[in-house]
Sequence to fold (110 residues):
Amino acid sequence: MKKVILSLGVALVQLMAVNAFAAGEVDATDSKAAASTPATKAEKQAARAERKAAGAEAAKAAKAAENGDAAGGADKAVPSAKASAAEKKAARAKRKAAGAEAAKTEKNGQ
Fold:
């Protein structure tokens, strides 16, 4: 019988505590931020332009850091002069010979 009364007493205390906390506001009214005036359309546009410029600068810096550019200059490489057909053919033959040599050493190494 004592256990039943004890259990009912604990449940009753919990119900009272829940009702007591639910009745009042937990935060004091002074803890809330003061209401500010809404921003005008011009202020919003200025803030948006500022954020856009800052974001573009951050993206450019991140891209420069990713590419290893210390100066963060131009994003694209400067193209060199066009190669003639003979230069292309010579470079292709050189690459082909280097590839064949690498394949041969790989085959002999196994």
Summary: The chain has three helices and no strands. The first helix runs from residue 2 to 23.
